[in-house]
Amino acid sequence: MLCPQHLSPPTPVPMAWLLVSLLTPAAALSQATLPTQTLPVVAQVCGPVLEQRQHRYPASTCVALEVPDTPAEYQIGLMGRSHLPPERGMWFRFDRQNASFWMRNTLIPLDLVFLERRDSRMARVVKVAHGVLPCQSLHCPTYEAGQPVDHVVELAAGEARRRGWKEETVLDFRWLEDSGGENDRSQSTRD
Question: At 181, is the secondary structure helix, strand, or coil?
Answer without folding.
Answer: coil
